Amino acid sequence: MGVGERSPRALFVSPEVAPWVKVGGLGEVTRDLPRALNRCGADVRLLIPAYPALKAAFGDARVAGHLPAAGALPASRILAADASEPLYLLDCDPLYARTGGPYQSVDGTDWPDNHLRFGLLSRAAAVLACEGIAGWRPQVLHANDWQTALAGAYLAHTPRPPVGFVQTIHNLAYQGVFPRGVLSDLALPASAFSIDGLEFHGQLSFLKAGIRYADAITTVSPTYAREIQTAAFGVGLDGLLRARSGELTGILNGIDYSTWDPTLDPYLASAYGIDDLGRKKPNKAALQRASGLPEIADMPLVGMVGRLVEQKGIDLVLEAAEAIVHLPAQLVVLGDGPRHFVDALAALARRHPREIAFRVGFDESLAHEVEAGADMFLMPSRFEPCGLNQMYSMRYGTPPIVRRTGGLADSVTDLETGFVFDAPTADALLATVRRAIDAFREPAVWATLQRNGMARDFRWDASARRYLEVYRTVLARRLPGTSGGGVKPVATVEEARRLIDSFEGNPQDFELPIANELLDPVGVNIAIIADAILAREWEPDGYIEGNGCRIYRYKTME
After folding, report:
1. Beta bridge partner(s), residue 396
2. Domain covering 11-250: architecture
3. Which of 165, 264, 320, 491 could form a disulfide linkage to 430, CB 3.0–4.6 angstroms apart?
4. What percent of the chain has pLDDT over 70?
5. Topology classification of domain 483-556
6. Where is average pLDDT lowest: 105-109, 350-354, 429-433?
7. How far is residue 304's CA from residue 345's CA, in Å, rounded to a whole number?
């Protein structure tokens, strides 16, 4: 049994994954966090709906399982795809084979059957967590945002092995709220609709289910974890989050350094690094040319990339834009959003063709060009659970201008790596842009700001280690003998041998809890137990410490 502690097996379920299906930062997190967890030794696999882009990318995916229809949820298949990280696709053409985005049609309206589309995803995740697939069963089910949060309710209303359930909140503003009448469509019992369950002001909330039933709740920055426990940011769930504050952790997201690397970025006119910032200047000229702005090297160029919504402070930018360009400065904006914001930005660009450039939509190449070519980057968000662009900006030597909220507060330091303001007003934004331009006029000060930001380490590795701590804590709570229930830890060799001999099934589903007092220093007891394991042709697959025992896992001998 001489095998050390191993990281858990986890099923990471999400409604999007970059680069194939991406609306916001969640798609990038889904791509990057499991990869980082697996680098740390975990066994993390993804479950994503089989959208057309994913089916096209993985045309050779093989059928690994079937889910029968339940309630109004159609029958579906699980496809196993060969990707950089193990990937399962939930295949159900009636729900996922559509043009448009993962949540909305091409005209920007929500799909009317989103409760079925993401109810099925949640139920599939719960079934895989309980039953496993192709000889593999996770010990942790990790759900992301409201679209997968109903998995908590399915687990709570299904007899299940001691699988841990982790719910990550990427943005509390989106909660998946539907009429109470959809409960029967989702194949959940009537008892699930209660104040202690899914009920939310007379309706049904997917995200409330995830928060209510999770063994651990995470969100994407420490400051946001505190903010959402207040009425100002809690969107009606602050009371429940305060009640569960002992299970709530804020972990700052990371970024993918292989994708965002100014020394190797293929989208840039000129590669550069922390020691050759002079090579950043051609990127500014290239961005000015591409945007139709005059190439003026000493004119401050302010960039902004993202969704054009009030959350991101686009209304503050619109209010301050005329004053910003008269400082003077140039402004480049890339993004999309509601028509009134798009029209207002387009009108500004027409009035100030030498100072303001606006590109509607999203363009990966141009996003990289803005990060490298701008002198400073705007993120005046009213709230920001984490934010990624401010990290990209620092990585690219483009000091960010941010409001002190959520992950922006946790990642940007005023006058050290960027510029920070507090009030969500156009006047506060304008004053901070003016401060940034004053610093830009002092080359030594500006170079120090750039290098400070570029020296920060926002790789995923540290965040992944924090998530592994959450996984291990959840599993420790669910060890036998804890409130999670299960078999009492064995205290004698005879008890251990009886437990081993009586088990029938996949050894990956067998967990042997050994009381600490049985773990003698000489190892005689463990040697005897090991002989019983070898007789079953099993081999150890790691263990977890906690709650007065050590719990061993096994697999079939190869």
Report:
1. none
2. 3-Layer(aba) Sandwich (3.40)
3. 320
4. 93
5. Translation Initiation Factor IF3 (3.30.110)
6. 105-109
7. 12
Q: What is the pTM of this model?
A: 0.86
Contacts 24+ apart (CB under 8 A), 439-446: 439/399, 439/415, 440/300, 440/375, 440/376, 446/399
Beta strands (DSSP E) in 177-223 are 177-179, 199-200, 203-205, 216-219
Residues of the chain with CATH 3.40.50.2000: 11-250, 277-457
CATH fold for domain 277-457: Rossmann fold (3.40.50)
Both tokens assigned to 150: 């109903």
pLDDT band at 483 (very low <50, low <70, confident <90, very high): very low
CA atoms of 419 and 376, how far apart (whole Å): 10
- Distance from C-alpha of 534 to C-alpha of 147, rounded to nearest angstrom: 43
Domain boundaries for CATH 3.30.110 within the chain: 483-556
Q: Which residues of 539-555 are buried (b: 16+ CB within 10 A; e: fewer)?
A: bbbbbbebbebbbbbbb
The CA–CA distances, whole Å, from 85 to 10, 36, 42, 357, 518 equal 12, 10, 11, 39, 38
pLDDT of residue 485: 44
| CA torsion, ordered 29, 31, 36, 42, to nearest 10 deg | 110
For residues 70 and 332, give the distance between their C-alpha atoms in angstroms, rounded to a whole number: 50
Report the C-alpha gap between 52 and 372 in whole angstroms: 33
Cβ atoms 1, 552 nearer than 8 A: yes
Residues of the chain with pLDDT > 90, as a percent, come to 78
Q: For 519-532, what is the mean pLDDT?
A: 71
pLDDT tens, residue by residue, 231-290: 999 999 999 999 999 999 999 999 999 999 999 999 999 999 999 999 999 999 999 999
Nearest-angstrom CA–CA distance, 87 and 45 = 6
Whether the CB-CB separation of 123 and 150 falls below 8 Å is answered with yes
Whether 92 and 120 have beta carbons less than 8 Å apart is answered as: yes
∠ Cα 437 441 447 (to 5°): 95
User: Side chain identity at 167, as an amino acid letter?
Assistant: Q
Q: What is the pLDDT of residue 546?
A: 62
Q: How do 140-144 and 164-169 pair as beta strands?
A: parallel
The pLDDT-based confidence of 558 (bands split at 50, 70, 90) is: low
Q: From CA 550, how far away is CA 546, in angstroms rounded?
A: 6
Q: Among residues 450, 466, 511, which one has the least CA distance to residue 485? A: 511
Model confidence pLDDT, tens digit, residues 152-194: 999 999 876 678 999 999 999 999 999 999 999 999 999 999 9
Q: Determine the length of the chain.
A: 558
And the tokens for 487?
A: 């078999």
CA angle 282, 286, 287 (to 5 degrees): 120
Q: H or E element: which one contains 118? A: helix 114-131
Phi, psi (degrees; rounded to nearest 5) at 107: -90, 5
